[in-house]
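pipeline/complex-builder :: batch 7 item 3
reading input block
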Amino acid sequence: MTEQSRLAACLPYAACLALSGVLWALTGQITYDERPGQLGPAFWPRVAIAVMALAAVAEIARRLFAPRADEGISGIGDALEASGDDGEADEPRSAALLLGAVLLTVAYGFVVTTFGFILSTFLFLVAFMYLGRYRNHLVVWASAAIGTLVFAFVFLKIVYISLPRGTAPFDGVTQAVLDLFGRI
Amino acid sequence: MLDLIGHLANGFLGCFAPLNMLALVVGIVVGLLVGVLPGLTLVMGVILVLPFTYKMDVTASIVMLTAMYVSGTYGGAFTSILFRIPGEPIHVPLLWDGYAMARAGQPAKALGWTLVAAFVGGVISWVIMVLLTQPVARFALSFSTPEYFAIVLFGLASVIALGRGGLANAFISLAIGLLVASVGTDAIFGSYRFTFGLPLLADGIEFLVVMVGAYGVGEVLSRIERGYAGKQIGEVATTKTELPTLAEIGAIKGMLIRSSLLGNIIGIVPGAGATIASFVSYGIESQIGKRRREMGSGTVEGIVAPQSAATASVGGALIPLLALGVPGSGATAVILGAFMLHGIQPGPQILITSAPMVYTIYASLLLGIVLMCILGYFAIRPLVKVLDFPEAVVSAFVMVLCFVGALAIRSNVTDLWLMIGFGLVGYLFERLRFPIAPLVLGVILGPIAEESFMNAMISFGNDWTIFFTRPISGTIMACTLVALALPVLASLRRPRNR
C-alpha cells in the first residue's frame, strides 16, 4: 500500500472525526432545566459521538501505522462470507450511471409536490428504465403507464395514503386519473 | 400446556379468516419471488411491502410480513441450485454443494433436499418459538431498567460482532444510528436535539425512513452503478423436485436436527440472521460432519445444513421480538415497525394484551411453512421465470416503492428527502464497506437503550456499576463483553490458520 493510498483510505475516517467535532459542538447548544446530579439530554449523544470519534481515530492510526493496514479486525459475518464472495466487488462501476440515478432521484423529490405523485412517478419510471440501459420501448412505456396506474389505484383508492396531488395545471392529471378510478 | 393448545387452536381458526389467509398466501408468494430475484434482498422486500400494510388489520399485516420473511429464506435456493445465482446471501453456501449436485445430473434431488431442509428447519424452530416465547416473556416481566439496557446493549454488540465490515466501521455505523435516533425531542428532559429549527425533526426521524433509504435506495444505486452486470441465465434442465425417501432422510436426521437447532439459536441472537445461520451451519458441518471431506462436491449435508439453519433462524428471531420487543434481524426490525405503526408494542406484555393476535401469527407461520413447501414443489418454473425480468425495470419499481414508503409514513415530503439522504448514506456505506445493520439497529434500539440507561441512572443515583452488580444484567453484560471480544479473538487466530 503506497503512502498516498494509505492517506486516501483514511479520508472517510477523517471525515467522521470532523463530523464528531461538529456534532460535539452542537450538543453544547442543547438547552434544558439543569438539576444537580442529572446527566442531561446531551449525555447520550455525546457517548455516541465519543464512540464514533474513538473508532475513527483507531482506524486512522491502524491504517497509517499498522504494517498490514488492509487487514483490520472484522466482524464474524465478514470472515464467514469471505469464502462466498462471488467477485462482485471487482465488477466495473459507472460513475455516470450512478450520477444519473442520483439526479433522477433528487429530481423526483423536487417535482413530486408540483407534478403530483402520478405524473412524477410515470416520468421517473420511464427515465429510470432508460437510464438502466433498457431499450425495449414498448415495455418501458407500457410498464411505466400500467405500473403508475396500479400504484395510484392501490395507494389512492384502496390503501388511502395521502400522496401529493400536484399544483395547477399538473393536478389536472391526478384528478383525471382519480375520475377514471371513480368510474370503475 | 392445555392453555397453549387452546390458544393455538384459536390461532389456527383466526388464520383461516379470509383476509389473514389472503395475506398469508400473498406473503409467501412475494417472499419466494424476492428470494429468487438477485436485485432484491429479503429485508428490502419486507420493507417495500410495508406501505401496503398501513391500512390493513394489524394481524393480517404481521401475517403477511412473517410469511414473506420465512419464504424469503427458501426462494433463493432454486436459483442457486439451477443457475448458480444466489438470490440472497443466505444461499451462497448452496452454490458449493447444491449447484455441484445439479451439475452432477441430480438437480431434482438437490431441490428435494432443500425442500425437506426448509420444512424440517421451519417446523422445529416453530415448535421452539411457541414453547419458548411465553416463558421468556414471563421472565422478562421481572426486568427493570438495568436489565433492559443490558439486553439492548447485548443486541447492539452482537450486531457489531457478527456483522460484515471492519469492527471500527461497525462502531461508526452504530454511533451514527444512535445519533440519528437522538434527533428530536428528548423523552426524559423534553429538550430539542439536532432539530435545526425544523418542526418535522422535532418529532424525530422515523426509523422506517432510514431503513427504506439505506437498504432500498442504497442497494438500487449500488446495482445501477455496476450496470446491472448479472450472470447470464442458462437453460433450465429441470424444474422438477424429487423428494428424498424416508430412509434417506433417516440417514441424516441427526445432522438435520442439529442444523435446525443451531439455526434457531443463531436466530435468537440479535444481529445474527439467516445468512449467519446458513454459513455457520455449513461451516460446522465441514468441520465435524461425517462427510466433511466431501463437502463442496455435491453432498446432501452441504445442502441440508445451510437451508435448514436459514429457515430455522426465522422462528428464533421472532422470540426476542415478541417476548422482549427487541428485533434480532433487519426483517424483524421491519415487523417491529409494522407492530408500532398499528400502536402495538411487542414485549413481555404482548402475550397478555394481544394473545389472540400472537397465536394467529404463530399459526400462520406454521401454515406458511407448509404452503411455502407446496409452492416450492409445484411452482419452481414460474418462480424462476422472474429472473427474465429486466433488472432496470425491477429497480425502477423498487425506487417508486421506496418513495411511497417514505411519503406514506407521515404524509410529508421532508421524509422523502430524508429517505433519499439515507439512500446516499446506504450507498456510501456499501462502497466504503461500512455495515448497514448497526446503523439501522442503532436507530431502532437507540431510544430504548437511552431511555432505559437514563432511567436506570436516575433510579440508582448515577451508579453505573448497577449494570454489573445485578445478577441478570451482570450476566448479560458479561455476554456483551464476550460478543465484542469474539472478532478480536477471531482476528488473532486468522494468521495461524493461514
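note: Chain B touches chain A through 89 residues (CB under 8 Å).
queue -> next item
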